[in-house]
Structure formats: structure tokens, C-alpha cells
Design brief:
It is a single chain. By secondary structure, the chain is of the alpha+beta class. The protein has 2 domains: about 45 residues; about 100 residues. About 35% of the residues lie in helices and about 15% in strands. It starts with a helix and ends in a 17-residue tail after the last strand.
């Protein structure tokens, strides 16, 4: 039985990452393969670092998306995003063992990704294996929202409803400003005795 395309791509990615093959070595190994199978080598990516990254990358490439592996979070940031789809979605693919002790660091990375203008999404190995259509749907929802034209936001004029904060000298470095009095009188009904 032949392996599905995404698994075949993952196998070739592993061959490249492990150092057992180079890209030219893979082309040589597939030279005698049927012509429709030779093309799988073009899907291989030496930057892919895990099985689920390879599977997700193959999934989105197969759906016609532009996909990049191991993209830096931002300029001067050494952290890398597992998979970026259409330069909008930063997909982080987490294995339970590899990310068991990096919860806060992973969330800080998500914030940095958002600051750089991408939407961070996380999926586990189990989600990719058992719920891949849901992962695809979530990525497509983010991409659709990113393409939707934005209406300009209206900025209210005048005083907002929030009380102001004044900086003062004294025991505390702040003091809440009193809200402005309203011109209308508030009539409180008296209790009838």
C-alpha cells in the first residue's frame, strides 16, 4: 500500500533533515521512479523539523497556499515559526513532550508573532492527526478575515465615560479625577409615610 502524499513528504523531509540525503541525492534516488512519483521530491523541505510540520505544510501546499517553514518571528528575533501560511497565519505545531515545559515561553512567542502582524494559531500532533479538517478550517477563517476590507473606526469626540487619572504628589502616584457633574438634576422619589 502506498503512503499518502503528506506522509511521503514527511518521510523525505526527515531524510533531508537527518542528513542521510541531500536534495540532489533524493532526485538521484527517484530517478528510476515512475514520472508521477518523481515530483514528490519537489515537495521536500530541509527546513521542516517534525512530522506534523511536514504533514501540515503538504496539506496547505496541496490546497494551493504559499507555505514557508521555520520563519523568524521578526527582525532580530531568533525564534522561528513552524509554518507560515500565505504570510498571514503563523501555525505553531506542538508535540506534548517538546512543549510540556515551555507554556509561558510559547505564549510570549504568540504575542511577538501578533505584534509582527501575523495571527498565531497552535495545533497539537493529535489535532493534526485526528482533526486536520478543523485546523484547515481555522486557518481559512483567519485568512478570510484578513482579506476582508475594514471599515474605518469611529472615534468619539469629547469626554469619554472613563474617569481620568491625575498624577499627584503624595502617598500614591495616582489620583482618580472626579467625573464631571451632569447638568440635569437627579430627582430621587421620597418614600411615602
Amino acid at each position: 500500500m502506498a503512503a499518502p502524499l503528506d506522509e511521503a513528504v514527511a518521510l523525505l523531509d526527515w531524510a533531508l533533515v537527518s542528513g542521510n540525503f541531500s536534495l540532489s541525492g533524493l532526485h538521484a534516488a527517484f530517478a528510476a521512479a515512475p514520472s508521477d512519483a518523481k515530483g514528490v521530491v519537489d515537495w521536500a523541505d530541509p527546513l521542516s523539523e517534525s512530522f506534523i510540520e511536514s504533514v501540515i505544510r503538504a496539506t496547505f501546499v496541496g490546497l494551493g497556499h504559499r507555505v514557508e517553514s521555520q520563519v523568524r518571528v521578526g527582525p532580530g528575533d531568533r525564534r522561528r515559526i513552524d509554518v507560515v501560511v500565505d504570510d498571514v497565519v503563523a501555525l505553531e505545531l506542538d508535540g506534548r513532550l517538546a512543549h510540556a515545559y515551555t507554556f509561558d515561553a510559547d505564549r510570549l512567542k504568540d504575542l511577538a508573532i501578533t505584534i509582527q502582524g501575523r495571527t498565531a494559531l497552535r495545533a497539537s500532533y493529535g489535532m493534526v492527526r485526528d482533526h486536520r479538517p478543523l485546523v484547515v478550517e481555522a486557518v481559512h477563517a483567519v485568512l478570510e478575515e484578513a482579506r476582508r476590507p475594514r471599515r474605518p473606526q469611529l472615534v468619539p469626540r469629547g469626554r469619554t465615560q472613563r474617569p481620568g487619572v491625575r498624577h499627584t504628589r503624595g502617598r500614591r502616584p495616582w489620583h482618580l479625577a472626579r467625573p464631571a457633574r451632569r447638568h440635569a438634576l437627579l430627582v430621587v422619589p421620597r418614600a411615602v409615610s
